[in-house]
Amino acid sequence: MLDERTSRNDMGGSHRLMSVMDSSPTATERLLLRAMTDDDLDDIAALLGDPVVMRHYPRPRTRDEARAWIDWTQASYREHGFGLWVLTERSTGAFLGDCGLTMQRVDGVDELEVGYHVRADRQGEGFASEAAAAARDYARDVLHAPRLIAIINPDNIPSQRVAAKVGLSFEKETFYGHDQHPVVIYAGVP
After folding, report:
1. Whole domain around residue 65: which residue ranges?
2. How many CB atoms are located within 10 Å of the residue 48 CB?
């Protein structure tokens, strides 16, 4: 069932996002993407608690914070009809990470962001780019989003490469989050 939602930005403009409840890109060549559930807590806690995965964040997350991550993601499904999806390897069923679309407020404007995390031992195999491309296509083909961004730590060169591979380009440097840490914004039309 399609559910139209309108998001307004602070400049008075509006754009319409078409959201499909309980929907996600289902597969790529090597990945299966599915909704994040409570049963994913062990994998998400290991992912977000890994210092290598979280090296471009202020710190790794605790198990309770991983629980809150799942709750936040599930709230995004309910509110927007999309969110982060669990990535599993098609050939083995192994958990690889998460990737998806979330609404983020950047410089006073609500933006649709693509985000991704891949297990440290599987980084460098192209999974983030493959998953981010699926999320980009979902933003374009299902949500009909007019714009997509990635919020990236300035030191995270691999993530900037992923953003570029899916057609986003450097837009600006700014500050983000409750602690207003420096980030770079990559943006484009999905």
Report:
1. 2-8+18-145
2. 21
CB 148 within 8 A of CB 136: yes
- Residues ≥6 apart with Cβ < 8 Å to 66: 41, 44, 45, 47, 48, 49
Residue 189 lies in a domain: no
First-residue to last-residue Cα distance in the chain: 23
Task: For residues 16-28, give the mean pLDDT.
Answer: 58
Inter-helix orientation angle 127-141/157-165, to 10°? 40
Q: Is residue 133 scored above 80 in pLDDT?
A: yes
Mean pLDDT of 108-136: 97
| Mean local confidence (pLDDT), 116-124 | 98
Q: What is the mean pLDDT of residues 93-120?
A: 97
For the record, the structure tokens of 168 come out as 């986003």
In 10 A of CB 113, how many CB atoms?
20
pLDDT given at position 14: 33
- Give the CATH number for residue 97: 3.40.630.30
Name residue, tokens 């990635």.
Answer: 150
Q: Which two tokens stand for residue 28?
A: 């790529």
